[in-house]
Amino acid sequence: MGCSTTVVKYLVFFFNLIFAVSGATLIGVGVLLKMKNNDIQNFIPDKYHLGLPPILMIAIGSVIFFTAFFGCCGAMKDNTCMLTTFAIILLTLLIVQVAIGAYAFLIIGDTQDLRLSVRQVVEKSYNQYNETQIAKEEFDFLQAFLKCCGVDGPRDWKWQNESVPISCCASQTNNCGIKSTDCFRKGCAESSYVWFKNGLDLLGILAVAVASIEIVGAIFALCLSSSIKNQLRREAYA
Fold first, then answer.
1. What membrane topology is given (predicted)?
2. Tens of pLDDT along 6-50?
3. Distance between alpha carbon 47 and the CA centroid of its chain, in Å?
4. Which residue of 96, 190, 207, 236 shows the fewest CB atoms closer than 10 Å?
5. What is residue 28's predicted lDDT score, i.e. its pLDDT?
6. 49: phi > 0 → left, psi -120 to 50 → alpha, else beta; which?
């Protein structure tokens, strides 16, 4: 095997290690986001399907992690069939990711609409705070989780003595009020929007990073496969 082929071979193996790590990272981030989304599932606007991206991340991450096996084995065994299969899977994943990205951009591209939708869900839960125990527990969790208070701020709670729910306070005590220093100042409508938007931005960054690795990996795999085939032809005619 020529020097250039050997170099490409080890580059493919190296990129597959990175690819495997990327897949494991996607799985980990997907599981983390899924757990967090489950905590505040009721505050996710239904039309945006924001609970779907973590599931897709876990699925794509799993496929990526196991696909790295084909690349590593193909590179080490000089198996052109496995290398070609690896490249095809990578390109297929890339197409799927582009399709998902385009869909997400079309659905969630209007940030003002997302902000308004999140606000409506938060307002609905806030208005039901004193109606059911479930609504109360959900909104208390949202305030404690996002360190926010009310819809637009602590003054939304028009309680006697300017008191607020315990979940509005960092100290988690009954002595907390609107003017207390440990009372959260941000409203939950904006905090919820920022939480969802940051999650979507993170997904976008990860998608671009993984797509870049996929393109490079596919190119190296096809180059290595071509080099191996040319080497076999030269040996056959030697």
1. Multi-pass membrane protein
2. 776 777 777 777 777 878 887 887 787 777 666 566 666 666 556
3. 18
4. 236
5. 83
6. left
Locate all alpha helices (DSSP H) within 128-238, ordered by sequence: 133-146, 188-237
Q: Half-sphere exposure (CA, 13 Å, Cβ side) for 83? A: 25
8 Å CB contact between 142 and 189: no
CB 86 within 8 A of CB 70: yes
**Phi, psi at residue 163, to the nearest 5°?**
-80, 160
Token pair listed for 74: 């193909």
177: which 2 tokens?
């009020």
Neighbouring CB atoms inside 10 A of 120's CB total: 12
H-only helix segments in 40-171: 52-77, 80-108, 111-127, 133-146
Cβ–Cβ under 8 Å, residues 224 and 5: yes
Q: 80-108 vs 52-77: helix axis angle to the nearest 10?
A: 160
- Between CA 91 and CA 95, with CA 92 as vertex, the angle to 5 degrees is 85
Number of neighbouring beta carbons within 10 Å of residue 238: 5
